[in-house]
Amino acid sequence: LAQKGLVGSVQMGGRTVFQASEPGRIEDFISEKKNLLEGIMPGLKKMSASEKQTQITVLKGKEGMKSVLQDVLEVGKTMHIFGGQMQIVDALGPYHENYTKRLKERKIKRVGVFLDVKGVREKTEKWSIDAKFIDPSNPSDVVWWIYGDRLALVVWKKDIEIVKIVNKEYVK
Q: Whole-prediction pTM value?
């Protein structure tokens, strides 16, 4: 901070005593950094746009799932679900109930094709999901979530894993 001119120091009685610079100096420092940022921002935006062709993220556990669900809310598009058994209700408990309320507030729909196993029809009805059902004779641990330009592959194992892919070409 001393090198940046934001504090001064003095030796008194064998101790170093620091004193903040006047507030105007702090304003000048912030203004300089802001001007620097404004100068490089167009280049950063161009680089960011070119890197957005495909983004792949691996998330783990309930917190990873909550992160993807928050992303669904932010994207604000219908969530398409394929292959699920509504495991999310048991996995997230009260969080799922709160999440469903936020979906309704934002008028985000969920539609899906679910395995026709015990309890799934009741859960989809309770949680206002437009659902179709398929024969459960070949179940998979992977559920597909598609929303906006994103695909999330949710692997329902002991430790939940999610592979999130952002690319509009993958979700056509």
A: 0.66
Q: What tens digit of pLDDT does each residue of 96-150 get? A: 999 999 999 999 999 999 999 999 999 999 988 999 999 988 888 899 999 999 9
Tokens 């495991």 belong to residue:
87
Separation CA 111–CA 90 (nearest Å): 19
SS3 call for 68: helix
Beta strands in 13-160 (DSSP E): 15-20, 55-60, 79-84, 110-115, 130-134, 142-147, 150-155
What distance in Å separates the CA atoms of residue 21 and residue 2, rounded to the nearest whole number?
A: 9
Residue whose token pair is 């329902």: 156
